[in-house]
Write a structure and sequence with these properties.
The complex is a heterodimer of chains A (135) and B (381).
Chain A lengths: L1 E10 L15 H20 L3 E6 L6 E3 L8 E3 L8 E10 L2 H12 L13 E5 L10
Antiparallel strand pairs in A: 1-5, 1-6, 2-5, 3-4
Chain B lengths: L2 H17 L4 H18 L8 H24 L19 H9 L6 H12 L4 H7 L4 H14 L11 H13 L8 H15 L3 H15 L1 H4 L19 H15 L6 H14 L8 H15 L2 H15 L1 H9 L8 H11 L3 H14 L3 H19 L1
Helix pairs in contact in B: 1-2, 1-3, 1-4, 2-3, 4-5, 5-7, 5-8, 6-7, 8-9, 8-10, 9-10, 10-12, 10-13, 12-13, 13-14, 14-15, 15-16, 16-17, 17-18, 18-19
Classes of the chains: A alpha+beta (135), B mainly alpha (381).
Chain lengths: 135, 381
């Protein structure tokens, strides 16, 4: 098994096919979308492939150390940031092909007009632990 | 209470329940319930016959569940209280359980999870922690696996090779969590080796022992990967090495070579060298030739190229490497190593950095990055 991150971007990914901002959907369409996500996660739990799903707030702050004994420096939020992560799902699957298949399904979550969004998701493999046998 | 003793009894107790007519999934659940009770009761009131105690309690749990189910569904109890007659009785129950849990109808991950639970006696929570997934996910993986094998007859003879692949997976991906999967894999393989005299079981056990012997030297205090040639060999566990060599020699004497024996032989040759320079690379190449002949595995060919590089020089290693698919995992890392040995640090540094980007594990990536950094620092000065 290998773990993959299915990454959803607010910004930074190519435009979705059904590219209507969520606040322009009807409330029922929003509910249908949320329900699809829940069902998807529940189904993956059932197949023994679910690890984690989280959504992130759109607003964030940049932080860096400013040296010992000093408070950290903060900056932002930056409206012009090119890439913005909306959330993720982590799956644990048998093959890379299976990861792509699931990402494809997740991308087809319903959006405006009840039609699939066909949004772009980024699939990133986790770095694993080193195997015991090395030569 | 001795937990390892308790867990050793698990497969046999499941076997007794199945032989009395319980289906495998229900038997397995009942034994898990009995284990929970044993952990609670035994410290204050240790049984004289632990196995008998577990059988009694598990059987009662099984009957409770069955009766509840039956009354709910208004169905007849189809459970027999006596062992089933038939030729299966002579078969080792625990051995049958190994076969069932590694059944070819299961995916490798399902077989691993089911083996750890039903043969190893680990709890679902422990298995989930070991593989870094939520407990609910692991519980589903296990119950799906049980459903998959529910129609397999318990007396059906199995294939040792499938069992060995599962145990090898547990060993090789034995992540360093709270549950020592490497130790568990060795325990289960040892147990299997007692039950069957199959040479490849011995081969796998030897392979595990020989690799496990080097474990203390494989990582530095900061967790970094230490390559074989740089390991402090005084940290190797000589007792495990001696046992591994012994197990291997007995297996090899039967003259039925297989991939695990060949791999163990390579590990034994490494273990035999007091220093990296004393390594008998010529013999190691010969064993890789055997391994390639048996498995035709691209990974074996890649490792063979490394060995050729040591035995006949880096040019020969690079020539062997040139015949292989560059898309193979670790191909670039091997090329980097051979180019450095061939006196081309510029190419080696570039390839190490490239290999780091393609690494599949974090310790490996850090190691390769460090190699690239080392060469780049030398090239700058």
């Amino acid at each position: 098994m290998a773990k993959y991150l299915l990454l959803k971007h607010y910004r930074g990914a190519p435009a979705a096919v059904n590219d209507v901002p969520m606040d322009q959907w009807t409330p029922e369409e929003v509910s249908a979308h949320v329900q699809y996500m829940r069902d998807f996660a529940a189904r993956l739990e059932g197949t023994g492939e679910f690890v984690d799903a989280q959504a992130l707030s759109a607003e964030g702050t940049f932080v860096r150390s400013d040296g010992e004994g000093r408070p950290p420096v903060t900056d932002g939020p930056f409206a012009e940031t090119k890439d913005l992560i909306a959330g993720w799902m982590v799956i644990d699957v048998e093959t890379y092909e299976r990861a792509l298949e699931l990402a494809g399904e997740l991308s087809a979550a319903p959006g405006a007009g009840g039609k699939p969004i066909h949004e772009w998701l980024e699939v990133r493999p986790f770095l694993a632990e080193a195997p015991t046998v090395t030569e | 209470m001795n937990e390892s003793l308790l867990r050793e009894l698990v497969p046999a107790v499941i076997g007794v329940l199945v032989r009395r007519g319980a289906d495998f999934a229900a038997a397995e659940d009942a034994v898990q319930d009995a284990l929970v009770e044993a952990v609670r009761v035994w410290p204050d009131d240790p049984p004289r016959d632990p196995k008998g105690w577990l059988v009694t309690v598990a059987w009662r749990k099984f009957l409770d569940v069955t009766r509840a189910d039956t009354s709910r569904r208004h169905r007849e109890v189809r459970v027999e209280t006596e062992p089933l007659p038939g030729p299966g009785e002579a078969v080792d129950d625990a051995l049958q359980l190994y076969f069932l849990c590694a059944h070819p109808s299961l995916t490798p991950a399902s077989a691993v999870a089911l083996t750890l639970r039903a043969v190893g006696g680990l709890t679902t929570r422990q298995i989930a922690q070991a593989y870094l997934v939520p407990e609910a996910t692991m519980a589903q993986r296990i119950s799906r696996a049980k459903r998959t094998v529910s129609d397999v007859r318990f007396n059906q003879p199995g294939d040792v090779a499938t069992v060995l692949r599962v145990l090898y997976l547990v060993f090789n991906e034995g992540y360093s969590g709270d549950v020592d999967l490497v130790g568990e894999a060795i325990r289960l393989t040892r147990q299997l080796a007692v039950k069957t005299k199959h040479e490849e079981v011995a081969g796998l056990l030897a392979l595990m022992l020989l690799h496990h012997a080097r474990r203390p030297a494989r990582t530095g205090p900061d967790g970094r990967l230490v390559p074989l040639a740089e390991q402090d060999r005084s940290l190797w566990n000589t007792r495990l090495i001696a046992e591994g060599v012994d197990v291997l020699q007995t297996a090899l004497a039967r003259d039925r070579l297989g991939e695990f024996q060949a791999q163990a032989a390579i590990a034994a040759l490494h273990a035999d060298a007091q220093t990296a320079e004393e390594t008998d690379w010529v013999q190691i190449v010969e064993w890789y030739d055997e391994l390639v002949r048996i498995t035709d595995s691209p990974v074996a060919r890649l490792n063979r190229a490394v060995a050729v590089g040591e035995a006949d020089g880096p040019r020969a290693g690079l020539a062997a490497l040139a015949e292989l698919d560059p898309a193979l995992p670790r191909h670039t890392a091997v090329a980097a190593y051979l180019h450095e040995r061939d006196g081309d640090p510029v190419t080696a540094a570039r390839l190490y950095a490239e290999a780091a980007r393609a690494a599949l594990s974090l310790p490996e990536r850090d190691h390769l990055t460090r190699q690239a950094a080392r060469l780049n620092a030398r090239l700058r000065s």
